[in-house]
Write a structure and sequence with these properties.
Layout (H helix, E strand, L loop, with lengths): L8 E15 L3 E9 L2 E7 L1 H10 L10 E11 L2 E13 L1 H4 L9 H6 L2 E6 L2 H5 L2 H14 L6 E6 L11 E3 L2 E3 L4 H6 L8
Parallel strand pairs: 3-5, 6-7
Antiparallel strand pairs: 1-2, 1-4, 2-3, 4-5, 6-8, 8-9
Length: 191
């Protein structure tokens, strides 16, 4: 007897663009989006990548740009996963900083800390991960973000050839320098 999987639901997701996740150095596969429920990693379909290319042909997306995404929502092992089919730019980065994002659990998302892990092993350490960790620690301290961010050194993030590596939530960022790592702090907590 086959187990029935919950049906996939089509819905809209609104949030601020944070960054792209690139595969093989050039393929945009996923996008990180800051929503009312926290940082989300959404998968881009071929249709969504084509739409993104058309929208950003003249002006690339900058962190903080408000987007509306047509997504398919899937529940997998208790986690919600999103697959993007279409997207629209609602407001440029400068305009979107004043917009309140919709949230089904706004009080829960405010109390939830963003977890940032910096690899402190092998190749990452040789390539300067300690300096990245120190700079992030200083930025968190300077901006009084201790109640919003958990920063920790961690073991291998399995991207050794692309180090130094840092993970924000479940998203790994590679080939970082201190300033690039600080720029990856979600715009909600930049202070």
């Amino acid at each position: 007897m086959k187990l029935k999987h919950p049906p996939k639901q089509r819905t809209n997701l609104v949030g601020q663009f944070v960054s792209y996740e690139v595969k093989d150095g050039y393929k945009v596969k996923r996008m990180n989006l800051l929503t009312g429920d926290g940082l989300q990693s959404v998968k881009l379909t071929k249709e969504a990548r084509a739409c993104l290319f058309r929208l950003t042909a003249e002006t690339p997306l900058t962190p903080g740009t408000l987007l509306s995404l047509a997504v398919e929502q899937k529940h997998d092992d208790g986690a919600v996963k999103y697959k993007v089919y279409d997207l629209q730019i609602l407001a440029a980065a400068a305009e979107s900083t004043q917009i309140e994002l919709p949230s089904s659990s706004s009080s829960a998302s405010r109390s939830k800390k963003t977890k940032i892990r910096v690899c402190d092993r092998g190749t990452c350490r040789k390539r300067g991960s300690q300096k990245i960790y120190q700079q992030l620690k200083q930025a968190v301290s300077d901006r009084n973000l201790g109640d919003q961010v958990t920063l920790e050194k961690t073991g291998c993030l399995k991207e050794c050839k692309r180090g130094p590596n840092m993970a924000i939530g479940k998203t790994c960022h590679s080939r970082l320098c201190p300033s690039a790592a600080i720029d990856l702090l979600p715009s909600q907590i930049k202070g």
